[in-house]
Automatic annotation (TrEMBL):
Pfam families, A to Z: BTAD (PF03704), Trans_reg_C (PF00486)
Protein name per Swiss-Prot or TrEMBL: BTAD domain-containing putative transcriptional regulator
Keyword DNA-binding part of the UniProt annotation: yes
Ranges of the DNA-binding region feature: 1-92
Organism for this UniProt entry: Streptomyces sp. R41
GO molecular function, one term: DNA binding
Family: Belongs to the AfsR/DnrI/RedD regulatory family.
Higher taxonomy: Bacteria, Bacillati, Actinomycetota, Actinomycetes, Kitasatosporales
Keyword Isomerase: no
Amino acid sequence: MTVRSTGGQAVPTAPKPRQLLALLAARAGLVVPVDLLVDELWQDNPPARVLTVVQTYIMQLRQSLARAQGASTAEVTRETLPFTGWGYRLVVDRERSDASVFAQYAEQGRRALLNGENDRASALLRRALQVWRGPALADVHVGAHLLAHRTSLTESRLGVIEQRVEADLRIGRHHELIDELTGLVARYPLHENLCALLIIALYRAGQPARALDAFELLRTNLREALGIDPSPRVRTLRQAVLDAAPCAESGEPLRAGCPS
């Protein structure tokens, strides 16, 4: 986690204030109730005089932000991290928030993909992914609320990766995608859509045998882990590879699968 301003970094090194700032940043612009802050930091085991402890952490954060901004603590208290009467609100310009920038490019890329603007979609989705520097909140202890936020961010990132791969497949980059998709499938062995994208990339790269192997590995993983078979869409894609169907070669949208 980083918080930068003209005066430098503003992230505390102590675990609890760092966690507190992370939750405020995750809900930037919104009032975060004190009860929720307490629940995130201590769950069912808050310390004695917990409100005083929270106020102390908030004071430390305000001082750090004041140093980073070259402002007074009073200005930060009034404009950047005010108390509303029932919670605290971190005021952040959305254009300076990595999560907001990611979401903006991701949405633009998604719309471009839906409109068939494949080159533009690929470029926008890549810009969204370039915002990421590594796993979300990797250096912050997380409680229940930050865990939910981190999970949501991670799922959003994976969805953008899928959409970017789909855009790249539509514009003929199947050879370039094989290594990336192979790694993603190894990391997410039960993820059907990633496997489907790998099957398509392999088939279009002239490797139908490997495409069928990818399907069989997915089927084995699903049966062993969940006791189920791949979805009809992926089974239809396998049959299209066996039949050398034109839909497996085309650059048409992939989410609907090949016609039976």
